[in-house]
Amino acid sequence: MLLAGTDSSSLTLEWAMSNLLNHPEVLKRARAELDAKFGQERLIDEPDIFELPYLQGIISETLRLYPTAPLLVPHYTSDDCTIGGFDVPCDTIVMINAWAIHRDPTLWDDPESFKPERFANGGEEPYKLMPFGQGRRACPGMGLAQRVVGLTLGSLIQCFEWEKVSEMKVDMSEGKGLTMPKAVPLEAMCKARPIVNKVLS
Ligand code: HEM
Fold first, then answer.
1. C-alpha distances in angstroms, 79 versus 85, 90, 92?
2. Ligand 1 center to residue 168 CA distance, Å?
3. What is the interface pTM, i.e. ipTM, of the complex?
4. What tens digit of pLDDT does each residue of 81-96 get?
5. What are the TM regions of this chain, as residue ranges (predicted)?
6. CATH of region 1-68+107-200, choose from 3.30.420.10, 3.30.70.790, 1.10.630.10, 1.10.10.60
7. Which of 55, 138, 176, 200 fits as disulfide partner to 133, beta carbons 3.0 to 4.6 Å?
């Protein structure tokens, strides 16, 4: 449970921050959403993240392009069944390539681009996005993960200005692992925003 819950959430945060550094206009818009809703008077808290649709879009778009369990986990058919037109006999191991489904050009418009706004106003059918799997064996930690990632990412944006360490784009290559890490760990620079002094004084 600890293994399933820690790496997946922390890697999702690392992918999300990397995306934000490569797309400063998205970072700016996320900060503007936070400042408009909650100002620089108090830190955001867990219930607040559900009032931040653009931040939620950033997390969904990160999980679409960089699902930390790209092949979900192996499933096993308990009966003969048909999946996508293919007859699959009982007792077969079935792998689901969520990574490929999330980048399928027949399902997504401009699939390789990072566009959090695609999720605005219920903009995408929920069945296409499956970073937590689907159905009875879907991730039981989904609600917790959404809160942990949302609150942490929101707090990082609310409290700090973020910059890349060089002019070059953050390397988005995927590494090997049980959960999908970045090949090159993220390095970034940050500067405290006024709210940090306020809440610490
Ligand atoms: C961003 C964070 C996370 C992602 C992307 C993620 C993704 C997944 C995926 C894809 C599965 C397999 C679903 C399937 O079989 O189709 C899974 C299973 C599981 N996850 Fe997560 N997970 C995350 C966070 C968590 C957290 C925070 C916990 C618990 C504290 C957790 C606990 C579990 C457990 C126990 C299973 C196995 C469920 C079963 O086999 O019935 N996960 N997760």
1. 16, 4, 9
2. 34
3. 0.98
4. 999 899 999 999 999 9
5. none
6. 1.10.630.10
7. 138
